[in-house]
Design brief:
The chain is α+β, with helices and mostly antiparallel strands and about 140 residues long. The protein has a single domain (about 20-130), classed as GSPII I/J protein-like (Pantoate--beta-alanine Ligase, Chain: A,domain 2). Helices cover about 40% and strands about 30% of the residues. It has helices at about 10-15, 20-70, and strands at about 80-85, 90-100, 105-115, 120-130. It has a four-stranded antiparallel sheet, with helices on one face. A hairpin with a 2-residue loop joins β3 and β4. The longest helix is centred in the middle third of the chain and has 51 residues, at about 20-70.
Length: about 140
Amino acid sequence: MKCKPTSCPPGSADRARAGFTLAEVLAALLFLAIVIPVAVQGLQVASRAGQVAVRKAAAIRVADRLLNEAVVIAQWRQGVQNGVCEEGPYQYRWSLQLEPWDQGILHLLTIKVLFPIQDRDYEVDLSTLVDTAVQ
């Protein structure tokens, strides 16, 4: 069997056609145009969730401290109060409310702590019962 020599080595025609077509490139760009915004949105949601968890823990510490202070020095007898408390680089707005409770002479003392994260306000409420008959 004799082989006839050719001017092109075998498979060179396949290598010339090995590039991407315009339709394939456009399809890949369209896919990236859809995937990248979704991935960025996912990162923003994850970032916000992490910030909310950290700031909520700090807000709970602030609420606990202020509520204990209000009970110990009977600050809650002065009616509705509010203010701003700083912890670290952040500010937390708070308000203290006393409401009647449906059983006996006890009242419900609630502190609400508000904190903003990425243009949204979040709130933590902490409550305890106080005896209004005790002086």
